[in-house]
Design brief:
With 766 residues, this protein is α+β, with helices and mostly antiparallel strands. Helices cover 37% and strands 15% of the residues. α14 packs antiparallel against α15 and α15 runs antiparallel to α16. The two termini are 47 Å apart. The structure holds adenosine-5'-triphosphate. Keywords: ATP-binding, Microtubule, Motor protein, Nucleotide-binding.
Length: 766
């Protein structure tokens, strides 16, 4: 079963210093009434206040919404699913200072408590209920890990900053899941215990005062709550991940100093990559750039099974206008991401640790996790241990695609395996990745690692040696598969010339060498820019160069590079638009060649700071090559070949080209004549000046992006209206200029346009 990411918006109230400010974000219900059940956020067009954009979400919470209401409506219902074996991911997204931390963590008073403490409170209540209802036959354990991603490095928040390794904890891919190696997992039996741990850990979180937020989170914080339900025969594990993302920042507004700028660049970069992932998912691209930031690797949006809730935090005031619009665009895409709802099936307890051993938990009983899957929320645990379901065949140790992987998981569940070391015994991180990338043998095979668990589990020593062999084999297989997968991923990119590859490698080496100096981040951006460029993604490349700019102020070559890209993007856009507007459209029923596909301006521009740059304000339609650029690798041939369409997040095309095998469907052609049913069209009908009042009125409604008005058009239901608004949002500032353009929108055909028009007859001239 699959469902979309649930996206809800929350508008924070005005802060003290904003009371005299202009509020521009409003809400309404889908039917246009203000019934209190809002689902629509409305915001004016930054270019024209008379127009507004509307965005529909699963729910929209207004300024006065309490913490309790958010929890009761959105989070509380997920607890039941958590205990039914589903994993739950809840994350807050928004610009800096919009209320993410307030929503997730909240304040100290009972009423102010945020989603996380309330979630834990609810979990503990349910634990007690289950234990009571089953008369103790089911026991529930709660354990948590809490870490932050700061400047693209992962730090355990249970560890004070002075004890951190500067490079942070490594993350690894393990059987397709992302894991943080060496993270502490603390059992946590009561709410009080949780509160103590959580408060302590939050002191370790990186926050600083910025101009936009006195307590700005400078990192993404991820709390993972593991719930283990143990019965006489089964063990079921599910996880709730609550993520407070750092907010994007427009550094022209922050007055950030160098240190804050570096943090900010890292935050913006990871959010930019997240936006790219969401865009790639929504375009069903085969390559999702998860790996380009640790946050996206860990969040794995769209890959994590279970339930996902995104809370979009918004500030209502005008000073956030572009930021808010950009967040709304992001959320609008996110809501379309499908996630699989797969529950974790109970594991049979034949080989799991004895119940007695698992129940004695206390605050001091802290374990390090050797490999804790973050996104392995819903791995099917059927046959992961030797207690596989009765009647099932024993797993084969040498099967590459499934069983070998399961064998690896299986061994990690054996009691004799070193699952973790008591903190009191050693301060050394216990975890070595048993992942494909580890060159050292897994700790389980090192004699010194045979700690208390191993000693208490002597009976399975024989099984361990067999399992060890299996694990080693599966590890090698994983290694090979990972290599192959990586090769596969790169194989899709255009082949690089040896020279270009060398320059990219040089750049990577320079980044490594400069790890300690502030320019490393800038070089990272340059590298990413180059990689985007090589893939023909000009707009994304430009974005990355823009992000690199603060690190290389006044760098002529960088400026030149950006200008070249800007010109190229603009030229492509103008070329495409002129095709759309100037080409006579005698008929659009004929199949259309791919080159004629219409690409509208990119909306990859999800980062408000960049969006506001207005990078395309000076037209210069000539192309320049960048071969003279010494500092950066030359552009691959393919880069020049690609069309702007490759950067565009939205393209529409006549339906005829979508189904090439069928004969082209004859689309009705509209004209603004009195006879609306006539399908003959004078080419001059493209000119808005010649549109009839009815057409003008219809286009006005469409371009208002007002979901309620669009929905009210004849033949347009809620779904179609939502699709139309989504298309329009993707088109950013571009408008639908004529009926042909309208008919080409996704989900709209000639018949729908005709219906829309005829439905508008009352009071409007034909
Ligand atoms: N719903 C709300 N009710 C009252 N105050 C709020 C609400 N939401 C946010 N605030 C206040 O707004 C300010 C900014 O909120 P917060 O720190 O949660 O923002 P943030 O999005 O987490 O910012 P950053 O990304 O910089 O960490 C704080 O003073 C917070 O108390």
């Amino acid at each position: 079963m699959s469902s979309s990411v649930r996206v809800v918006a929350r508008i924070r109230p005005l802060l003290k210093q904003e009371l005299d400010k202009d509020t521009i974000v409003t809400t309404e219900s889908t039917d246009g009434e203000n019934t209190g059940n809002s689902t629509v956020v409305r915001i004016p067009n930054p270019k024209n206040d008379a127009e507004s954009f509307s965005f529909q979400f699963n729910s929209v919470y207004e300024q006065h919404t309490t913490q309790q209401q958010i929890f009761d409506n959105e989070v509380s219902p997920t607890v039941k699913h958590l205990f039914n074996g589903f994993d739950v991911t809840i994350f807050a997204y928004g610009v800096t200072g919009t209320g993410k931390t307030h929503t997730m963590r909240g304040g100290k008073t009972l009423a102010d408590r945020g989603v996380i403490p309330r979630l834990l409170s609810s979990i503990y209540r349910r634990c007690r209920k289950i234990e009571k209802d089953t008369a103790g036959a089911t026991q529930v354990e709660v354990a948590m890990s809490y870490y932050e991603i700061y400047c693209d490095r992962v730090y355990d928040l249970f560890e004070p900053p002075e004890k951190r390794t500067p490079s942070g904890l490594p993350i690894r891919d393990n059987n397709g899941k992302t894991v943080v190696v060496g993270l502490m997992e603390k059992p946590c039996t009561t709410l009080k215990e949780f509160e103590h741990l959580y408060d302590q850990a939050n002191i370790n979180r990186s926050t600083s005062a910025t101009k936009l937020n006195a307590h700005s989170s400078r990192s993404h914080a991820i709390l993972c709550v593991k719930v283990t339900q143990t019965t006489e025969t089964t063990v079921q594990v599910s996880r709730a991940s609550a993520i407070d993302l750092a907010g994007s920042e427009d550094n022209r507004r922050t007055d950030n100093n160098k240190e804050r700028l570096v943090e900010s660049a890292s935050i913006n970069k990871s959010l930019f990559v997240l936006a790219q992932c969401v865009e790639a998912i929504s375009k069903k691209q085969s390559r999702i750039p998860y790996r380009e930031s640790k946050m996206t690797r860990i969040l794995s949006l769209g890959q994590n099974n279970g339930l996902t809730l995104m809370i979009l935090n918004l500030a209502p005031v005008r000073s956030y206008h572009l930021d808010t619009l950009s967040s709304l665009n992001f959320a609008n895409r996110t809501k379309k991401i499908e996630v699989c709802e797969v529950e974790n099936e109970p594991e049979f307890r034949t080989m799991v640790k004895p119940l007695a051993a698992t129940t004695s938990i206390s605050g001091a009983n802290i374990t390090r996790q050797p490999l804790r899957p973050l996104t392995n929320h819903n791995a099917n645990l059927h046959d992961r241990d030797t207690g596989r379901k009765q009647g099932e065949k024993p797993v084969k140790a040498f099967s590459v695609y499934s069983d070998a992987r399961k064998a690896a998981s299986r061994i990690s569940n054996l009691p004799s395996q070193n699952q973790g070391i008591r903190r009191t015994e050693t301060h050394k991180r216990s975890a070595e990745p048993t992942s494909a990338f580890s060159s050292r043998p897994p700790k389980a095979f090192r004699p010194s690692d045979n700690t208390s668990r191993l000693r208490t589990a002597a009976p399975s020593e024989l099984a361990l040696s067999k399992a060890s062999i299996e694990a080693l084999i599966s590890q090698r297989i994983d290694e090979k598969l990972a290599e192959k997968a990586l090769q596969g991923a790169t194989a899709t990119a255009p082949a690089l010339s040896a020279e270009l590859q060398k320059r990219l490698d040089d750049l990577e080496h320079r980044i490594e060498a400069k790890e300690e100096d502030g320019k490393s981040q800038g070089l990272q951006f340059l590298l990413m820019a180059k990689q985007h460029q090589v893939r023909g993604e000009d707009a994304s490349a430009l974005r990355m160069y823009q992000m690199a700019l603060p690190f290389f102020p006044g760098n002529e070559k960088l400026n030149g590079k950006m200008k070249t890209l800007e010109d190229r993007i603009r030229a492509k856009r103008e070329g495409e638009l002129s095709k759309l507007t100037s080409a006579p459209v005698p008929t659009i029923s004929a199949p259309v060649a791919p080159s004629a596909l219409v690409s509208l301006p990119t909306s990859t521009n999800l980062m408000a700071p960049l969006k506001a740059e207005k990078t395309q304000s000076k037209p210069k339609p000539t192309y320049t090559t960048d071969s003279e650029d010494e500092d950066f690798a030359p552009v691959a041939e393919s880069d020049h070949d690609t069309t702007y369409a490759s950067d565009s997040s939205f393209r529409y095309k006549p339906k005829a080209s979508r189904k090439p095998k069928k004969p082209a469907k004859k689309l009705p052609i509209f004209r603004d004549s009195a006879d609306a049913s006539s399908y003959s069209v004078p080419s001059s009908s493209n000119h808005p000046g010649e549109q009839t009042p009815r057409t003008t009125h219809l286009l006005k409604i469409i371009n208002s992006r007002d979901i309620n008005k669009i929905k009210a058009l004849k033949g347009v239901g809620a779904k179609k209206a939502d699709a139309i608004v989504s298309c329009l949002v993707e088109m950013e500032e571009e408008e639908v200029r004529d009926l042909e353009g309208l008919a080409l929108l996704k989900g709209v055909g000639g018949r729908t346009v005709e219906n829309m028009r005829t439905g508008l007859s009352t009071g409007v001239g034909s």
